[in-house]
Amino acid sequence: MAEFLQLDIVTPERKILSDSAVEISVPGKNGYMDILPGHAPLISELAVGEIMFRNASGKPQHLACAWGFVEVLPDKVTILAETAERPEEIDVDRARKAKERAEQVIKTGSNEEQLAAELDLLRANTRLEVASKSQK
Amino acid sequence: MANILDIKRRIRSVRNTRQITKAMQMVSAAKLRRAQERALAARPYAQMLTNVLKSLSARAEVVDPITGETRNPLLIRRPENNVLLIIVTGEKGLAGAFNSNIIKAAQRFIVEKAGKNIDLVCVGRKGRDFFRRRYSGPREDGSRSGAIQIVGEHAGILNRVKFEAAQAVSEDVVRRYTEESVDAVYLVYNEFKSVVSQRLVVDEILPIDVIGETDIRMAEGMTEEQKKRALEAARVAGASVRAADTSEIDTAAAAFGTRPVDYIYEQDATELFNALLPRYMGVQIYRSMLESEAAEHAARMTAMDSATNNAGDMIDLLTLVMNRARQAKITKEIIEIVSGAAAL
């Protein structure tokens, strides 16, 4: 049984991360999934949320993800993420503004706008959440 | 006979121009390298997405087994009455015939599709400026302003192409296609593999016939002369001529989602397929924008190399003319002195 998972995170612009992890948690479309070495092969769509993984040093690392796709193999996890940002890459001000804007639209906008705004809000909240973890 | 001082001034001015064109050539070479790197970095994602789609299309019931109808609207071929054309040009001029070639290809396409309604989406400032002078956008009430109209303008996004920008273009186009306001989507852009391997292509991106393959409708390669010029310019500027070696990336990416194991699918395969297909469009448009950006820099590099050479030739010529004028003046002076002495 493998002890580590080879983790690769790829975005449309570049490969942002390649590491070996002992535990990975991804925001699956049907809920968060925790993946440990030796997991059965799986393919899933990812929703907006937080990717967390721990490498051998044990410290959890977080990334904000907005839509993606994951392939799990017993010794390898590949995440295709439309965006994946490390805490230090997140523009907190922008996320905060996006959050305010989205909240405004949810209060006043039409149905269709509200739906889009809810997604925006989710994205902004995820970003803020992940960003706050870097300061600890 | 031209005044020696005037010629001197002229030479100085040409020399300054040469310095500028030389600098622009070097800047373009550096930008080209960066654009190529970005294009390379974008490959794994595109490859992987394509692979997953391919293996999904085998699994997902893309075609309804009973009625034989295609389920995803992006795969359905309809009679072509309304066409959408995305034109990817450059942001700036001084790149030789780069922009005008693309615009010419787009115009040929428009002529070819005469009689059909054509919607244009312009990516890049140069194309937008050109087509804006000829066609206008839809009327305020949403009706067509003519058989040919501009429905999208995206200027200033090609300096550092962001995936988000490509995704926005793609979403807009996919929406129009699913709404059936257009029946086919074409993309005209400058394909870029390396400095000496470029093509101007018209690619039919919607409907999708075969996933992972482009549907080129018209292609125009480089002439031998152009290749020679480009090669020379790249040598002078120290830019790499060969296409980047992508085999390693491609092999790694090709393994994605295609291992001979029985995957658990968290979602229904059809559902996954339908979620992925629009993203695939985004990736394709992103790739075309990246390649076009690289091609623009390569074109500018070549154009500036020619300009630098021409400036050099002009300096040589002017120096010759100046020396002749100077000699003529000296000769004249000697004759004057000699004939003056003889008269005594």
List the helices and strands and how they pair.
The complex is a heterodimer of chains A (136) and B (344).
Chain A: E1 5-10, E2 15-28, E3 31-35, E4 42-46, E5 49-55, E6 60-73, E7 76-85, H1 92-108, H2 111-134
Parallel strand pairs in A: 1-7
Antiparallel strand pairs in A: 1-2, 2-3, 2-5, 4-6, 5-6, 6-7
Chain B: H1 4-41, H2 43-59, E1 82-88, H3 98-112, E2 117-123, H4 125-134, E3 148-154, H5 163-178, E4 184-194, E5 197-206, E6 216-221, H6 224-237, H7 247-254, E7 264-265, H8 269-343
Parallel strand pairs in B: 1-2, 1-4, 2-3
Antiparallel strand pairs in B: 4-5, 5-6
Helix pairs in contact in B: 1-8, 2-7, 2-8, 5-8, 6-8
Number of strands of chain B: 7
Number of H- or I-type helical stretches of chain A: 2
* Quaternary structure type: heterodimer
Query: What fraction, in percent, of the residue positions of chain A are helical?
Result: 25-40%
Give start-end ranges of low-pLDDT stretches of chain B.
none
What is the annotated CATH architecture of chain B?
3-Layer(aba) Sandwich
| CATH topology-level fold name of chain B | Pyruvate Kinase, Chain: A, domain 1
CATH class of chain B: Alpha Beta
Give the topology string of chain B: H per helix, E per strand: HHEHEHEHEEEHHEH
Strand coverage percent of chain B:
5-15%
Overall strand count of chain A = 7
From the N-terminal CA to the C-terminal CA of chain B, the straight-line distance is 30 Å
Mean pLDDT of chain A: 82
Number of domains of chain A: 2
Largest sheet of chain A: 5 strands, mixed, barrel
Strand order within the widest beta sheet of chain B: 3-2-1-4-5-6
Low-confidence stretches of chain A: none
Order of helices and strands of chain A: EEEEEEEHH
Shape of chain B: elongated
